[in-house]
Amino acid sequence: PGGDAGSSLGPAHVLLHHCPPLALLASRRDLFLAPAAGAWPGVAHVVLLWSPAKGRVTVAAPCLGLSHGKSLDLARGDTCDFRALLRGLPGLLSPREPLAVHTWAATPQGLLSLDVGGAVRLVQPHGGARAVGTLQAAP
């Protein structure tokens, strides 16, 4: 009567098992899972990308230029194991420094990151990364 339209959510579905703490950012088309403060030391350089429309989860290591994806059919109840996804990309778990990201922002083109040195990078939904520019302090 008051004009409020209710929302109805479907049942929860676990997409990814055995996953470290990650920060969730969303654009209109994709979900991005970036390393959070409590990320496991060996995977603090990894970003996960979930494209619901494509039914694809991608793990990317922007600092290494590596990515690996897996198609999932949620209607069939497909899920993914984080550790198995990482094993699908040789070299991903070699010791690396954590991403020194100051902040993240989701955009329609991908996930923008600003690192502590001022470098701006775009991690695209397919896992590829490219430099956008560098921010410098005013003189």
From TrEMBL:
Pfam families: HPS6. Residues 3-138 form the BLOC-2 complex member HPS6 N-terminal domain. It comes from the Eukaryota. GO terms for biological process: lysosome localization; protein localization to membrane. One of its GO terms (cellular component) is BLOC-2 complex. InterPro entries: BLOC-2_complex_Hps6_subunit (IPR017218), HPS6_N (IPR046823). This is Hermansky-Pudlak syndrome 6 protein-like. It comes from Carlito syrichta.
